[in-house]
Amino acid sequence: MALNQKFFNLPFHKQLKGMAIGLLVAGVALGCSPTPTQTVEPEADTSAPTAPQPNTAVQPTAPNSDVAQSPATTDRQALIDQLLSTRQCQGCDLRGARLEAADLSGVDLSNAILIDADLERANLSNANLSGADLTSADLENANLTGANLNGVNFTNADLEDANLTNADVTGANFTGADLDGVIGLNR
């Protein structure tokens, strides 16, 4: 007896189970994953009043956000929140932080790690960044007027069109940095 004949001789519920498993295996093999498309809520019992239930609906996430954040991401966000509220975060590890167009005027980020940070168009006027590591950071069009940049590592940073008027760049390292259009940098 051929395999397909055996299949059709099975009870109908076993045939359905076999087809469902076959579809699932085929879907996984093709890179698909089963996802529920609709949930069915049980009918409410109207015979007795009940206490309000907490909202358990899944909340939408912001675009480009991770479903589960790593501890490093959560910690970095806590440090960013601290920076924005207290205006200081000395020695903080803000590696890869996204601070585009942020008002960071007068903040104290001395000895902070800002490797690969996005500070494009950020206002860092009169900020203290002494000893900070800004390797490969994006500071394009950033305002660093009057900032303390003493000993800052700008290796491979993008400082295109940044304003460094009256900034203290004593001992700063600009190796490989993009300095096109920088204003106020006395080399």
UniProtKB/TrEMBL annotation:
Pfam families: Pentapeptide (PF00805). PROSITE patterns: PROKAR_LIPOPROTEIN. Residues 36-74 are annotated as: Disordered. Residues 47-74 have a biased composition (Polar residues). It comes from the Bacteria. It comes from Thermocoleostomius sinensis A174. InterPro entries: 5peptide_repeat (IPR001646), Pentapeptide-BTB/POZ_domain (IPR051082). This is Pentapeptide repeat-containing protein.
